[in-house]
Design goal:
alpha+beta; Thrombin, subunit H; Pdz3 Domain; six-stranded antiparallel barrel; six-stranded antiparallel beta barrel; 21 strands; 37% strand; globular
Length: 395
């Protein structure tokens, strides 16, 4: 099953057999030959070095900078404690691959499974719950899950959510190896990111690709509808290939950072970037699907636009999200006392600089949760508690 794309999906790349590996020359051929002439040359070099040292040739002379200023040497050091050390990709593979599955989707032809697509999945719980993408299982009559060991299970779709592109399937099995969960709160741009999935539906189990986290908080449009937007996505340069949708993006210790979902494509073709749904949102959505079989999205009930301040040097500085109207009345925001023209600058103590900050935070909330909004009204600073409502269908 291809991942969601920003444009037209790329064609499936051709598969080429690996060429035979060139043989390395015998070890003996690379060993140096220590003949008498080499020993004599070394002795002469040592004698010359002794003479130059006695003459002071090796003493430091004055340093001269190109512009006449004193030269500055920047010493960059990073101390890594054992707790911070990154494990090797091989160790990550050994840890993570038992939790990665191939998710085959198909139709039922008189009791025979006929596959029409394939994606990936990640074991969340030892009793058979597996997360994948909504677009992987969409339209499937039957789902099969295949483990690295070759075991095949019939799976049931527990529930799915198009708005976040997440789904949960369950198999009748126990003693599975759930993946260890990480957090994006501690993640940084440039840190190791490893994608593990089942590309192109190939046999032989999951594959691993390595890269880094390239960015946070990306907004990814996957279709033309208003709700075909994924918010707060992780961006990585670890290759995410067709069929890897629903797989894992993990850190250097094999902890789940996100579920891979989309690749970046332009008119020129794939752009070498991929996107993953952050673990905090994955946990919120999958927990609710497992509990209830469906997902209800929290709703503040406001239309927003970004607002900017002007710095002393003339730069425009993001300064919050201004409420322009209430699209549904009564809404949770209106009931709590918010007004058009109010500027939301914080939520539960975290800053809101642009509208996407507020939207991304609300995606992680549940219906009925109470949040505290920091609001600027004219020149007054207010803290307003809001009990989140339920997002209506079609909005």
């Amino acid at each position: 099953m291809p991942p969601a794309v920003l444009d037209e999906p790329p064609p499936t790349p051709p598969l080429f057999p690996y060429a035979g590996l060139a043989q390395e020359p015998p070890v003996e051929s690379r060993r140096p030959k220590w003949g008498p002439w080499v020993i004599g040359a070394l002795a002469g070099a040592l004698l010359l070095a002794a003479v130059l040292w006695a003459a002071g040739a090796f003493e430091d002379g004055p340093s001269v900078a190109a512009d006449g200023a004193e030269p500055q040497v920047v010493d960059i050091r990073e101390v890594i404690t054992p707790a911070d050390e990154q494990t090797s990709a091989r160790a990550v593979a050994r840890k993570v691959i038992p939790s990665i599955v191939t998710v085959d989707v198909g139709s039922d032809n008189n009791g025979t499974f006929e596959r029409f697509g394939s994606g990936s999945g990640v074991v969340l719980r030892a009793n058979g719950y597996i997360v994948t993408n909504q677009h992987v299982v969409e339209g499937a009559e039957r789902v099969q899950v295949i483990f690295d060991s070759g075991r095949i299970y019939e799976a049931e779709i527990v529930g799915s959510d198009k708005r976040t592109d997440l789904a949960v399937v369950q198999i009748e099995a126990t003693g599975l190896v759930p993946i260890e969960l990480g957090t994006t709160d501690e993640a940084e741009i440039g840190q190791v990111a490893i994608a593990v999935g089942s590309p192109l539906g190939l046999e032989g189990g999951p594959s691993l690709t390595a890269g880094v986290i390239s960015a946070f908080g990306r907004q990814v449009r996957t279709g033309s509808a208003n709700d075909d937007i994924l918010f707060d996505m992780l961006q990585t340069d670890a290759p995410i290939i067709q069929g890897s949708s629903g797989g894992a993006l993990v850190d250097g210790r094999g902890r789940l950072l996100g579920i891979t979902s989309a690749i970046g494509v332009s008119a020129a073709g794939p752009e070498g970037i991929g996107f993953a749904i952050p673990i905090e949102l994955v946990t919120r959505i999958t927990d609710e699907i497992i509990e209830t079989g469906s997902v209800a999205h929290a709703f503040l009930g406001v239309s927003l636009r970004d607002v900017f301040d002007v710095a002393t040097d003339g730069a425009q500085v993001p300064a919050g999200a201004i409420i322009s109207e209430f699209p549904v009345r009564p809404s949770a925001a209106e009931t709590a006392g918010l007004q058009p023209g109010d500027v939301v600058v914080g939520l539960d103590g975290e800053p809101v600089l642009i509208s996407d900050d507020l939207i991304s935070a609300l995606r992680r909330m549940r219906v009925g949760d109470t949040v505290t909004l920091d609001v600027v009204r004219d020149t007054e600073w207010l803290e307003i508690d809001v009990v989140l409502g339920t997002r209506p269908d079609g909005l």
